[in-house]
């Protein structure tokens, strides 16, 4: 079975440019999470969705960040405009809320973003 | 709200030695607890999880963890370290919210295995 698929794996961009990160969750999973990982701050939850609806976006750092989930098999995280301090690895994870009561997460390989 | 504390951001052991990574949690309800491992340039993978029942949980790659409610701990152990165990390890607790479950992660412990 395919796991969580993220693209791109690596992105290098210049300050001020728009960045879009993409995620395809595991088929049948109905919860999707976006995390950011940096050396300084560790693993931070940015936002999560249940059944395509955003539930908690309190971790989104600024209005420059936005996330959407137009359907059960696709989500995007957009940064506009990007800044050097946004450089990090962004992870998408999915889970089967309702069928799995534990909340176990399945992670993608991550998207490494570098903003110059 | 639940929280997780991992003692020691870096742990170094010799190959063949015991691995002990510490995790303490706070939770107002019986928790679901997890250990994840992250190898360089990869995502997090589940090592093991505690739900209910037996307090000693066995995971992949010879790791195990024991849930101790009285100590609010969920320490990860492996009897004999291997070079391939070098990675970052994250403890997490599941929090049930109005909109579902979400995991709260500790700050991670980097395990180094030396010859």
Helical coverage of chain B, percent range: under 10%
Distance between the termini of chain A: 37 Å
The count of DSSP E runs of length 2 or more, i.e. the number of strands of chain B, is: 11
Average pLDDT, all residues of chain B: 92
Pair with the most extensive interface?
A-B, 26 and 24 residues
Q: β content of chain A, as a range?
A: over 45%
**Termini gap of chain B:** 41 Å
Fraction of residues in β-strands of chain B: over 45%
Oligomer: heterodimer
Number of helices of chain B: 0
Q: Runs of chain A with pLDDT <50, length 5+?
A: none
Helices and strands of chain B, in N-to-C order? Answer: EEEEEEEEEEE
The total of helices of chain A stands at 0
**Based on CA inertia axes, which overall geometry of chain A fits?**
globular
Outline of chain B: globular
| Helix residue percentage of chain A | under 10%
Poorly predicted segments of chain B: none
Backbone structural class of chain B: mainly beta
- Can you give the mean pLDDT of chain A? 94
Radius of gyration of chain B: 14 Å
């Amino acid at each position: 079975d395919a796991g969580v698929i993220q693209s791109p794996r690596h992105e290098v961009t210049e300050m001020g440019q728009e960045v879009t990160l993409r995620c395809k969750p595991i088929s049948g999973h109905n919860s999707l999470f976006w995390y950011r990982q940096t050396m300084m701050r560790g693993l931070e939850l940015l936002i999560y969705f249940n059944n395509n609806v955003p539930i908690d976006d309190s971790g989104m750092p600024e209005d420059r960040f936005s996330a959407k989930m137009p359907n059960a098999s696709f989500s995007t995280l957009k940064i506009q405009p990007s800044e050097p301090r946004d450089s990090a690895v962004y992870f998408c994870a999915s889970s089967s809320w309702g069928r799995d009561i534990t909340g176990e997460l399945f992670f993608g390989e991550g998207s490494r973003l570098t903003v110059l | 709200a639940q929280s997780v504390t991992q003692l020691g951001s870096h742990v170094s052991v010799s190959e063949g030695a015991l691995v002990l990574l510490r995790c303490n949690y706070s939770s107002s309800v019986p928790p679901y607890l997890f250990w994840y491992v992250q190898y360089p340039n990869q995502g997090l993978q589940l090592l093991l999880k505690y739900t209910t029942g037996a307090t000693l949980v066995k995971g992949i790659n010879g790791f195990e963890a024991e849930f101790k409610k009285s100590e609010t701990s969920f320490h990860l152990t492996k009897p004999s370290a291997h070079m391939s165990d070098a990675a970052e390890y994250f403890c997490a607790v599941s929090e049930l919210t109005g909109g579902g479950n979400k995991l709260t992660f500790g700050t991670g412990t980097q395990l180094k295995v030396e010859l």
